[in-house]
Design a protein that fits this description.
- It contains 12 helices and 14 strands.
- Helix 1 packs parallel to helix 4 and helix 7 runs parallel beside helix 12.
- It starts with a strand and ends with a helix.
- The strands form 3 sheets. It has a 5-stranded mixed beta sheet, with helices on both faces.
- It is α/β, with parallel strands linked by helices.
- It folds into 3 domains: 3-124, Molybdenum Cofactor Biosythetic Enzyme, Chain A; 128-199, Alpha-Beta Plaits (2-Layer Sandwich), CATH 3.30.70; 205-356, Maf protein (Alpha-Beta Complex), CATH 3.90.950.20.
């Protein structure tokens, strides 16, 4: 089965992958990957005609994606090109070929789940299930070993994605798969990722951290330097964060680290703002306030240039702990300023999960 997306858009508008990305993800969750994506100008009728005919010849299922206001006319044009009677619904069938005409964005993703996936399961007389493992900081050699361990075949497929160190392994299988083979694949992957895993389901990292804080009945304080409040922002992005997050301090300047967190001037002078000592004292300062059970602190160099020391861009220290003990972790991340910052945010949230689970 081969599947394509035809994305029809105003080429003068800024590109946003969410226009169809969430739809492709919804389809992938059900076991149907997009083999090809066509991006067309809404003003080029000739290109649309050529692409629809090409898609009909080479693909079994085609998703035509456009803004909701443009869909009725576009669906009529698709029917005309496929030489089938005009249809009111989102699904247009031409023999064994199926065209789904859906709006872009989250509305389209919902339509994929509610309409397209059930249709495809009926069409192919197969249903899918999925096991997901989510982890952070998985080394390249482990990712390669996983690919060798979980081979596609026997109704089992493996999909891997990673963004800023947040790793998602999806093991997809259908109702013809050997249950023993599926269990073996999931067990082998879980064992390989054991030290890096934060969820044995599809729970995002920020949601998992908040779930664990609530489960343990803990209150969190955060102090951030180079991550600039992004750790707290990720947590606040989940409803209910106010139940467990007391405060976030963006202590960017050294004076703020001293005045707000109690970092010693001697520590900053001797070791610098980007050091394990400073990260430790930032976390201890939060705990000393008496407002939290768990503290999380970040300090580092996001670039593009280093500070006035010989410390490299990408160096960061993350401290996490309780009144009993505070642990400091050192990392050197690669990439752009955004890459370094976002990887540090994910690593900090992961270390928080490890601390309290």
């Amino acid at each position: 089965m081969k599947t394509a997306f035809i994305v029809v858009r105003n080429q003068r508008m800024h590109w946003d992958e969410r226009e169809f990305g969430s739809m492709a993800d919804a389809l992938l969750e059900a076991g149907y990957a997009a083999d090809k994506i066509f991006v067309l100008s809404a003003e080029d009728a000739h290109e649309l005609a050529q692409t629809v005919i090409e898609a009909k010849n080479f693909f079994e299922n085609v998703f035509v994606v456009a803004p909701a206001k443009d869909l009725p006319a576009l669906r009529g044009r698709v029917c005309e090109l496929l030489k089938v009677p005009p249809q009111d619904g989102a699904v247009v069938e031409a023999g064994t070929k199926t065209f789904f005409c859906f709006p872009c964005g989250t509305e389209g993703a919902a339509a994929v789940r509610a309409e397209a996936v059930p249709f495809l399961e009926r069409k192919y007389s197969v249903s899918h299930a999925v096991s997901v493992i989510r982890a952070v900081g998985v080394p390249a050699e482990k990712r390669e070993r996983l690919a060798g361990m979980i081979r596609s075949g026997e109704g089992i497929r493996c999909f891997v994605s990673e963004k800023y160190g947040d790793f998602r392994l999806e093991i997809l299988y259908d109702d013809t798969s050997s249950k023993m083979r599926v269990d073996e694949a999931v067990r082998a992957a879980a064992e390989e990722l054991r030290d890096y895993t934060y969820a044995i389901d599809d729970t995002p990292l920020n949601r998992r951290a908040l779930e664990l804080l609530k489960l343990r009945g803990l209150r969190l304080c955060v102090a951030e330097s180079f991550t600039g409040g992004n750790v707290a922002a990720r947590l606040i992005g989940v409803p209910g964060a106010s139940e467990v997050l007391f405060e976030s301090v963006v202590a960017y300047d050294n004076r703020s680290k001293m005045q707000r967190l109690g970092v010693r001037e001697e520590t900053l002078a001797r070791h610098g703002a980007v050091s394990d000592d400073t990260a430790y004292e930032m976390a201890v300062g939060l705990l000393a306030s008496g407002n939290c059970d768990v503290a999380l602190a970040t300090t580092g160099i996001a670039g593009p240039a280093s500070d006035n020391t010989n410390k490299p861009v990408g160096l960061c220290y993350i401290a996490v702990g309780t009144s009993e003990s505070v642990f400091v972790y050192k990392y050197i991340f690669q990439g752009s300023r955004e890459d370094i910052t976002e990887r540090a945010v994910n690593q900090a949230l992961f270390l928080l999960c490890k601390q309290i689970r």
